[in-house]
Amino acid sequence: MSFFAEVAAAVGLDAAAIATGYQIINYGGKYVYVEGFKRLTGIGENEITLALKDGVIKVTGRDLSVRSMEAATVIIEGEILSTEAVKNGN
Amino acid sequence: MEINGMRLAVTGFNQARLFSELAAAGVRLSRVCKKSPSKAEFTIRKKDGAKAFAILEKMCYNYSVTAIRGFCALPRFCALRSGLIAGLALFSCLFALSRGLIWRVSVGGNEKVDSLVIQRVLAEHGAVRGKSAKNVDADGLRNALNSIDGIIESSVRLSGPAVKIEVVEAADYVPPAKPETRGVVSLYDATVTRVAARSGTAAVKRGGRVKRGDVLIGAYRFDQSGNKLPSAAAGEVYGRTVFQKTVTFGAVEYQSVRTGRTLTATAFKFWGTGAGVSAEHGFLRYETETTESYAFDGLFVPLKVVRTVYYETELRGVEVDPDEKAERLAAEFAAELAVLAGAAQTETTKLLKQAGDNLYSLTVFVEAEILISGGG
Q1: A66, B15: Cβ pair inside 8 Å?
Q2: From A24, A81, B321, B373, which residue has the greatest number of CB atoms within 10 Å?
Q3: Residues of CATH 3.30.70.260 domain(s) within chain B?
Q4: Is B104-169 a CATH 3.30.70.3190 domain?
Q5: What number is the ipTM of this complex?
Q6: Is the CB of residue B176 less than 8 Å from the CB of residue B150?
Q7: B29 vs A contacts (CB less than 8 Å)
């Protein structure tokens, strides 16, 4: 069973919710793994933004850069100060 | 950069959209680095290159490939620096091999004990340059050094490639007397005429008679108290000696004389090569004279004319004046001695006797001053 599936099972989410939602994992404030976003909308040293279906994920920090990126996954490295997911309308 | 990766530099705005497009198309991006609002760099897999270039061109981005790394990159890198790599490998091997070897042996503290004795002990225990330091038994070597006559204590220290030996000599140690060298000796039986001793003590005086092997300059000197001390011997001693040579010759000498008959042969050389000169002269005895000259003098034409003249000769007996011949032979002998033995102030005496019909015996005595001294 995958890590995300384990967590989903623990909190009672089903597989569809995992597949259509987003996941953010912060590794010790040095790396952030984000999965489930639509596209990259902004890239800068202090902020990287990713578009969701109905919102945006903001990762703020210092010396941020994209370590690797594929269709719907990205690893951001740098000094991670905060990650937030903001829904549209908020 | 990963193996089989390609680093791209792009110029253009809205880079986030570009990266999203590339990622959506299945191009894996890594090490994305935004240099400025309009410049960014990123790495993709080589196999995604065509796809990435198409997207970049479609989105009107300027781009350039700054680096490519494939599976052949490492072998190519090594091949271009093969000399450097070979040199580093050789140096590393030599360094590793030399690490355990002795490169320096220093011995200190011995003033009276002969260094050769100490070195012999070191050699017996493997403490010599080029040998493995691991094979040196420091305690065994120390014991061997302490057993040398005149040494009461010693220390052996191995420090990397160096062996440091320190010895302490006994205060009352008296080294054995060295065998006395003879000095400068005479190579001839002679009467001494000049003595120039640069070191040592002259054992002969002017006018003294010496035989071959006698000491001319002794390897010793005297101090103020008259004690005899060893010393090096060097210098030059000259003396008068007599050389003798006996020759037998006949009253008739045969000389090669030209008869007057000649034959000339001509050949040509072009650029220094050509057929050799030969002619059917038919002479039983002959001598030749050969000349070469350019065929066209003054013009640079490398054509030479080689002319050889054959002179017929015959042996003719010529009566010899024995006194004249004796005089000539004596002079030749004296000249020979001047060259070979450096003879000077020569006095020549001849003794000419008739040895038989038309046969004479000449004995030449040459008295000369020569250098009679030789090494010690």
Answers
A1: no
A2: B373
A3: 5-74
A4: no
A5: 0.80
A6: no
A7: 66, 68-70
